[in-house]
Structure formats: structure tokens, C-alpha cells
Design goal:
single chain, alpha+beta, Beta-lactamase, 2 domains, 4-stranded antiparallel beta sheet, 14 strands, 36% helix
């Protein structure tokens, strides 16, 4: 009997030591997957709390944990509103990550923990004037919705607007004719565009092209590239996602894209090191790393750091009246042009209308004449992606070309598209822009072509 008791005590002690060893390993040398998860949780909660004014517990439960990796269910967050800090970790302490809020440039993930350096990116920008509530959109925020029963039926149909819809805005002939919002969201809620940010970033490049500070045929874009085959990559190749550079865009694990966004303080520097994996100009590879490098390039073209940090607002957001727009940087001050623009649905619609009008707003030619037409021409290496970071066939249709035609969409339809169901459809021939924002994971199989096709038909009635 004593031997049995002794064995049980020995086994219990071994288990305790194993648990202590496991905890120590996870605390001092956490696997990268845990650090990616905690970095994601901290960043998403930070942006939604400080930009969108949402409740941190709701954001953690609904935006981070519910649709994400099972590991995220164990993530806990702590928010310090006075210091503008959010920390997250597995059970609060393991694989801990932090995100910091800065004036004018939103939140940044801080993978190396150097929040002091991250705060150096802050730039004081005078708040944009609030749009008039009395003036009609887009000059103001007032909406006189079109009383079209067929349109109303579409935007009220939960199945057609999709699970997790947070905002739908329909613009016809330059005016909002219908809008709907999910529970807890409104026309005043800034929402992340994810990869729709890429299109905005491409337009920012266009403002520098117009000013003569950048040229689409520029090559030898980064100093280390000049010594190898990457010297042949042009700015136009980067815009068309045809650089030939290796970059793994798989969000399911620790891939290049998740490493860049949540483990690298210098995102552009990380992406810049990638070697060639295909022929320059002929190999299409969708890459968030490419978009962040474009941000680095246009910021360097401006030269002055403070001026570069204010450029998106002064060159684009202010002229368009995008009063809510916040484009975020990484820890080192490079705009995350791949992913992190927050704006209200009304402001996303303003940008879509701006593209529909060929880069002209209130009579001012903000982008070079013909630049938007060039953006939506098929990229040399792709039939469904445009030269300027827009989709031609539509979200997801690189695997299902022709879905737009099947939904009855005009041939000139093109799209901005982002993770978890963010889309802006732009149809010049119909003078139509349709914004759809939400939290709709790809596994649900939702595509907005049917909604937009139905709206086209209804607006003809």
C-alpha cells in the first residue's frame, strides 16, 4: 500500500513539474502561433476601441474569438485607455503582445514591445471638420433614401446582404438611395476595410504620380534589389501584384502575411527581403507585403516624415470629405497600406464614388487623368485583377471567373475587396456604387455579386 501511495505522489509531482515546465516554455519562449494570435487580438481590440469607440469585450468575443482560430478562444485582453495601450495573451500572460494608439495614425502592433519607439510615429493633425448633417451626401451626411420597394426588399433581405453584415450603402447617380446597418452599428461607425485598403493605397500612389514624385516605370526600387534580378521590378509591376516576389498570403497559420502583420516591427523591411519566385511582370501573386512596400516607396518619395504621415489626409481624405478615415502605420511608421484603413460606410462610399468619377472630386483632378481607367485595366499577369489593386471579375472570382456575368453585372463592374466580406462594387455604366461591410468569414461562402446584380435590376424598374 505504501508503495502505491509513494507512486501516486511521485506521479503527481511529475505532473506538477511538467505543468510548470510547460508554463515556463510558453511564457519565456512562446510558439510563434501564440504570438501571432495575441498580436492579432491586441491590434484588433485597440483599433476598434480607440477608433470605432466599441466595447473591448464585445470586440474580443465577436470580432476576434468567434470567427477565428480555436487558439483565439483562450486570448484575454487588458485595455488601458489613459495610456492608449492594449495587451493580450493566452490566459493573459502567455505569448503576451501589445498594441499602442497614437495621434493621427491609429493603433500599431508592437511586436518587440518598444512602445516608446512606436509612439514616436505620432503626428498631430488638426481634426477634420465634421460634415454637415443637413447637406445631402456626399457634401454632407443627410440621406434622402429612394423609395423603391424593390431596392428596399433587397437591402432588408438578410440572406442577400449576408451573415454578419454591418453596413450596406447604395449610391446611384451620386446620391445614397439606400442604406442598412447591422445591430450595434450605424453610419457613424468606422469599419476596417482590410484589403480594400490596397486600392486606397494605390490611389495615394496616384497622387504622387500626379505630382511628379513617382513614375510607374521606375525600377531599382529598393537598394538591395539593385544587385540582383529584383532590379527589373517596376512600380507598375508592384501595383499589378506581378513583381514575381515570393510571399505566402495564407492566413490560416504562421505565414508571411501573418508574420509581417503581427511579428515584424518593420513590415516593409520584412517584405523587401523576399526573393524572386517567378518571372517579373508575368507571375501574378496577391501579396499584402507588396502593398506595404508601396507605402514605404510613396512615403520615401515625399521625403519629409511628418509630411508623409499627413499625406493620406491632406492629399486624399480632406478633399473627398472622408472625415472618419484613419490609415494606420506599423511600429516603425510605415502605413499598412495592405490592410488597416478604418472609415465609415459613408466614407467608403465616397471613395468608391471618387473612383467612379475617374479620380475627380468637386471638379478637381486629384488623380492623373486616365489613372483610374489604367487601374481597372486587366493586369498583364492576371485576367481578374487590375493594374491598380482592384478586382475585375469580383471577390473570390480568381477561382470562379464569370460569376459577375452570371449575376447580371455589367462588363465594366470592378471591385474593392477585403477580408471577412468587405466590398465596394463600382459600375460606371450604371453610375452605381455599392458598399458592403461586415464580419463574414470566407468559409461561409458569401459573395456579393448576387446582391449587386439584384440592385442593378431593381434600379432599372
Amino acid at each position: 500500500m505504501r508503495a502505491v501511495v509513494k507512486f501516486i505522489k511521485w506521479l503527481f509531482g511529475l505532473i506538477v513539474l511538467a505543468v510548470i515546465a510547460l508554463f515556463a516554455w510558453l511564457y519565456f519562449a512562446p510558439p510563434e502561433l501564440i504570438r501571432v494570435g495575441s498580436g492579432y487580438a491586441a491590434k484588433i481590440v485597440c483599433s476598434n476601441v480607440f477608433i470605432a469607440g466599441r466595447d473591448p469585450n464585445e470586440v474580443l468575443a465577436v470580432d476576434v474569438q468567434a470567427p477565428g482560430h480555436p487558439l483565439l478562444k483562450l486570448m484575454k485582453v487588458s485595455v488601458d485607455k489613459e495610456r492608449g495601450l492594449v495587451s493580450a495573451g493566452l490566459l493573459w500572460t502567455l505569448g503576451k503582445s501589445v498594441a499602442v494608439e497614437r495621434d493621427g495614425v491609429g493603433c500599431a502592433s508592437v511586436p518587440d514591445g518598444d512602445t516608446g519607439r512606436a509612439r514616436q510615429t505620432s503626428v498631430h493633425i488638426e481634426p477634420l471638420a465634421v460634415a454637415s448633417q443637413d447637406a445631402l451626401w456626399p457634401e454632407g451626411e443627410r440621406v434622402d433614401a429612394l423609395q423603391n420597394p424593390a431596392v428596399t426588399k433587397i437591402v432588408d433581405d438578410a440572406a442577400i446582404v449576408g451573415t454578419g453584415m454591418r453596413a450596406v450603402v447604395v449610391v446611384k447617380n451620386g446620391r445614397i438611395v439606400a442604406e442598412r446597418y447591422g445591430e450595434g452599428f450605424s453610419a457613424k461607425t468606422p469599419l476596417v476595410g482590410w484589403s480594400m485598403t490596397k486600392t486606397v493605397n494605390a490611389a495615394i500612389v496616384g497622387t504622387l504620380v500626379k505630382d511628379g514624385k513617382m513614375a510607374l516605370d521606375n525600377k531599382g526600387l529598393f537598394s538591395p534589389w539593385k544587385a540582383d534580378g529584383r532590379a527589373a521590378i517596376s512600380l507598375a509591376d508592384m501595383m499589378a501584384m506581378s513583381s514575381g516576389l515570393e510571399f505566402n498570403e495564407d492566413y490560416g497559420d504562421v505565414a508571411d502575411v501573418t508574420r509581417m502583420l503581427y511579428l515584424e516591427p518593420d513590415m516593409a523591411g520584412f517584405a523587401e527581403t523576399k526573393p524572386l519566385g517567378g518571372e517579373v511582370g508575368k507571375a501574378f501573386s496577391y501579396s499584402s507585403g507588396t502593398a506595404v512596400m508601396l507605402s514605404r516607396l510613396w512615403q520615401e518619395a515625399i521625403g519629409d516624415k511628418v509630411k508623409a504621415l499627413s499625406w493620406p489626409r491632406t492629399a486624399l481624405f480632406e478633399p473627398l470629405g472622408m472625415h472618419s478615415a484613419v490609415l494606420e502605420t506599423d511600429e516603425r511608421g510605415t502605413f499598412v497600406g495592405s490592410s488597416y484603413l478604418y472609415a465609415t460606410a459613408h466614407d467608403w462610399a465616397r471613395f468608391g464614388q471618387f473612383l467612379l468619377q475617374g479620380g475627380v472630386w468637386n471638379g478637381a483632378q486629384i488623380l492623373p487623368a486616365g489613372f483610374v481607367d489604367w487601374m481597372r485595366q486587366p493586369a498583364p499577369a492576371s485576367k481578374v485583377y487590375g493594374n491598380g489593386q482592384v478586382w475585375i471579375e469580383g471577390p473570390g472570382d480568381e477561382e470562379n471567373p464569370g460569376a459577375g456575368a452570371a449575376a447580371g453585372l455589367p462588363k465594366d463592374t470592378y471591385w474593392m475587396e477585403g477580408h471577412d466580406g468587405q466590398t465596394v462594387a463600382i459600375i460606371p455604366s450604371e453610375q452605381l456604387v455599392v458598399v458592403r461591410l461586415g464580419l463574414t468569414p470566407a468559409k461561409l461562402g458569401y459573395r456579393p455579386q448576387a446582391m449587386v446584380g439584384a440592385l442593378v435590376k431593381a434600379l432599372h424598374q
